[in-house]
């Protein structure tokens, strides 16, 4: 990351997008000073503690912190043409993601940041995979895993019966899909009765639902939610925040995305292709 930067055009709604910078090589990054202001940290020293936690999380994840956190000295105007040198950290998108995960969860803007950077990080990961089928297969597997985890956490807070869980899941869908229930989504996408809507989602829609599930699971635990009604409200609120982020980014609302081919057919096609693949390749 270079300090030779140009500002993004600021046309995006998200405050995190507005402060995104791009260097001469086209690489994006964020200034820790501006990031602190957006997250509502009036005292930068408090924000430095968050940065340190994020650096440690980066190291523990097997990444090199110096690739994502670059210490620089910036000159800022202090009036009458004078300038002062201040310490700043240039942050990669992954560094920003780690920071919002370690920032004060009581700040609403932090929750929005968690949604924004998680979705963007997921999009970047998906772009590195080859082909829509591969992306769908990966996300569908993760969705199954996290739905099991979500069900376990929901059960621990009072969502016990199968009917309770169906209502709980519908609240999540209603938040993400603008009030539509699972059955409404099935009808809108013209899926047959009893069809699993997750099996007919493309990668973009699956990614949004995966984030809804993982963040609801974390919020139920973190906020120590108790009771099935409170759990349902939480699921709906998280879904609505994910929906708002998609809107802020100019994305297509999930209910308007087309139904995809049944993922089971994709899995079958991949198995057949692997069987036909010559040995040694």
What features would you highlight for this structure?
single chain; 281 residues; alpha+beta; 2 domains; 5-stranded antiparallel beta sheet; 5 strands; disordered C terminus
Can you put this structure into words, describing what you see?
This protein has helices at residues 15-18, 32-38, 44-60, 93-102, 108-127, 132-156, 162-176, 182-188, 203-222, 228-248, 263-276; strands at 5-7, 21-23, 28-31, 69-79, 82-91. By secondary structure, the chain is α+β, with helices and mostly antiparallel strands. It folds into two domains: 5-98; 129-266, no CATH class. The chain has a five-stranded antiparallel beta sheet. Strand 2 and strand 3 (28-31) form a beta hairpin.
Helix content: 55-70%
Shape category: globular
Low-confidence stretches are 1-12, 276-281
Strands ordered across the widest β-sheet:
1-2-3-5-4
Q: What's the total number of strands?
A: 5
Q: In the residues, how many domains can be counted?
A: 2
Strand content: 5-15%
Report the biggest beta sheet as strand number plus sense, adding barrel if it closes. Answer: 5 strands, antiparallel
Cα-atom Rg, whole angstroms? 21 Å
């Amino acid at each position: 990351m270079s300090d030779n930067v140009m500002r993004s055009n600021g046309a995006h709604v998200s405050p995190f997008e507005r402060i995104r910078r791009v260097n001469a090589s086209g690489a994006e990054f964020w200034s820790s000073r501006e990031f602190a202001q957006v997250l509502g940290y009036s005292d930068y020293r408090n924000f430095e503690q968050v940065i340190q936690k994020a650096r440690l999380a980066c190291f523990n994840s097997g990444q090199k912190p110096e690739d994502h956190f670059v210490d620089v000295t910036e000159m800022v105007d202090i009036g009458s043409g004078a300038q002062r040198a201040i310490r700043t950290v240039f942050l990669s998108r992954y560094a920003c993601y780690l920071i919002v995960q370690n920032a004060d969860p009581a700040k609403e803007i932090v929750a929005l940041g968690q949604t924004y950077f998680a979705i963007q990080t997921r999009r970047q990961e998906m772009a590195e995979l080859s082909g829509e089928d591969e992306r769908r297969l990966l996300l569908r597997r993760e969705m199954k895993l996290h739905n099991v985890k979500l069900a376990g956490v929901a059960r621990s807070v009072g969502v016990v019966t199968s009917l309770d869980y169906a209502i709980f899941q519908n609240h999540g869908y209603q938040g993400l899909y603008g009030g539509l229930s699972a059955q409404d989504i099935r009808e809108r996408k013209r899926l047959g009765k009893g069809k699993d809507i997750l099996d007919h989602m493309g990668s973009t829609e699956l990614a949004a639902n995966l984030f809804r599930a993982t963040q609801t699971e974390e919020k139920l635990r973190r906020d120590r939610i108790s009771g099935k009604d409170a759990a349902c409200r939480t699921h709906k609120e998280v879904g609505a925040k994910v929906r708002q982020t998609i809107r802020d980014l100019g994305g297509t609302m999930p209910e308007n995305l087309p139904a995809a081919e049944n993922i089971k057919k994709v899995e079958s096609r991949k198995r057949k292709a692997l069987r036909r693949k010559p040995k040694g390749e």
